[in-house]
Amino acid sequence: MNVLEGMRWGEAQLLDKNIDNARFDADMLLAEVLKVSRDKLYFERDRQLSNEEENAFKHWIVRRSEHEPLQYILKSQEFMGLPFYVDERVLIPRSDSETLVETWLELVRQEEKQGRARIKVADLCTGSGVLAISMAYYYPKAEIVGSDLSSDALEVARVNAGNLGVSVNWREGDFAVSIRGECWDWIISNPPYVSMADYVQCAPEIFREPSMAFLGGQDGLKFYRRLAEEAKTLLKPEGKILLEIGWDQGEAVCGIFQKKGFATQVFPDLAGRDRVILAR
């Protein structure tokens, strides 16, 4: 087959298996096989695929047809304009989470104008490390720790930090356990916040990702309660917490922290949905 035939064949195969964004995914897989950008495919539409290229492409289409996420096949996902390695050991970064990093950067730069420059940050449930690494990349003056219960996830995070040339202190531990006994300017987290009821309704691709990265207890609020319970022992007097939340969890999460004496503020994502909560 030539490139154009490959694009059409791949799309048809994925559509037959009810894969969302079938054309985009087929194009991206073919582009990766050919080592070109997606927009170059049409310029090379008459090029014949070698036997090796055709076999590799067809193998990847089969994998995607079985609802394996595109990012796991390509081993990559962009986040905050940076390339990250991902595989089955970690949650695939979502663009929604960029709201957390962007909000943090804005708040920290405001504080910098008031004379606070060197800050100590803990990123809990760091996974592939995208939050911690993005913060370190765009604000290198911060001292950043990334913590996760999964040693496999931390291996991926270390690879990403090395690839992007940033320094993050990685720690293994259950949620806040690895940062106890220290005082932090910021605690950042995109914790598991999907309820059991919502999880069972998810797209098939979700079940290929680590379930521990999604499930936040029966109602999705387990980790917010855990952090609120001990947050005051972890923060400096002016310390703050910045957390990603589900679009419908703003009121509930604010209530959890307000009961522990925190003032809260909710920030929306680009779609206008509640996405990040600040507790101080």
Automatic annotation (TrEMBL):
Residues 7-74 form the Release factor glutamine methyltransferase N-terminal domain. Gene3D superfamilies: DNA helicase RuvA subunit, C-terminal domain, Vaccinia Virus protein VP39. The keyword Transcription regulation does not apply. One of its GO terms (biological process) is methylation. It catalyses: L-glutaminyl-[peptide chain release factor] + S-adenosyl-L-methionine = N(5)-methyl-L-glutaminyl-[peptide chain release factor] + S-adenosyl-L-homocysteine + H(+). Keywords: Methyltransferase, S-adenosyl-L-methionine, Transferase. Substrate binds at residues 190-193. CDD domains: AdoMet_MTases. Its EC number is 2.1.1.297. The keyword Repeat does not apply. Residues 117-207 form the Methyltransferase small domain. It is an enzyme of class 2 (transferase). This is Release factor glutamine methyltransferase. It comes from Desulfosporosinus acididurans.
